Amino acid sequence: MNSGPREITTPYRPIPLEIPEGMKPNEFFNSTENLNDLEHNNGLLKNPENLLLYRKALGHTNEFDTSIIYNTSRIILDPLGRPVRRTQVPEKVRHVWNRMNQIIVEYMFDEYPDPEKYLLLAGEASLDATWPLTSPGVPSIRMLHNHFMVFDKEILRQAPPADPQNPNLTDGGQNSLFQAYMRDVYREFFDRALSLEILQPVHYDVSRIELTDYPQGLPCWEITGGVKSLRDIRFWKEYDEILKGFIDFYRTFFSQVSTRNAPLLDDVYFPLQVESTLLFNNDFMKTAKKVRDLCITDARYANAIRWQPAFKQIIYRNDEGKLIVTISQNSIGNAITELLGVVVNRRPDAEAYEASEGRLVAKLLEVRRRLMEADLGRAVKTKYWDGEE
Predict the structure, then answer these.
(1) 197 vs 73, residue with greater confidence
(2) How many domains does the chain have?
(3) Which range of residues forms the domain containing residue 141?
(4) For labelling, which of 59, 75, 211, 283 has a CA lying 20 to 30 Å from the CA of 187?
């Protein structure tokens, strides 16, 4: 079997939403009205912290696929003012959200114990409004949400190979700005800035999924203690530290792209390491100049830049059954599955979707039961399942 990224097709039931006349799709999907539909047609569980568990209407996989969104659509009407990263979420909400994450990942391990048969992941991608609103592919809802997915590896094995030049496969060295020009300083900064105990750096041979040969060229950490460590609050604090380090690197780099010899940003998390490891590194500064020069001379290139931190951060299970954490810039594509070399084409096909819907919903309702048992929310009623009105 040849290793390489795979491309699968996942059917879904067409969403019965009519976009009001005069609105672009990305404008409507950012609206409170759209979020109402998400809750009332696909909502599973919600709680006073405004965290909503829901079925993915346009799913990546029909084996197991669900998300939690921090639904601030009614309490923060300005889409650009909503939290889009873990670091922007109030501590009380983040505490509940971490417990929900832990319970769902444990369920995935219980239901899919064999790493040879199933690929599983949990994580989030930034939804910053960092592209022009008129650009295709702009993230729509602009609220922090995460994903929990399971893929049948046999389906991946039988799937055709994805084009390795697919622009959405952003994380290989050939496409990634960080990895192509600043791999050494990127890793050195993480090593210097982060003080970790539960998360331990691992080599590519450990982090790599043999079937897809991904992730490629990214810093990865093993969760020592496995799934049980997700019950330890220290793990979630370390998970946040990785994001903070990434944000410092990204913001510092693009501040130098924007303004030659820009001063140290006032609100970085690791100022000493930023100053010594990044701002005094010739490769770092040379690459910023390369990007700045391109922005000045190439309008198309400049328009594609995401000036604010855009990331994918996931927990996934490797071939040996170990839990691994990785993080990547989200510079071109938006699908979090592509971090592991899985390209998903979603096709409207109600009949094909309904063939697997019963099994999928049964699993989602079991997850909901476990969350309710832990006092993490109350059931939402839709036309597809029972709950509270």
Answers:
(1) 197
(2) 1
(3) 6-379
(4) 211
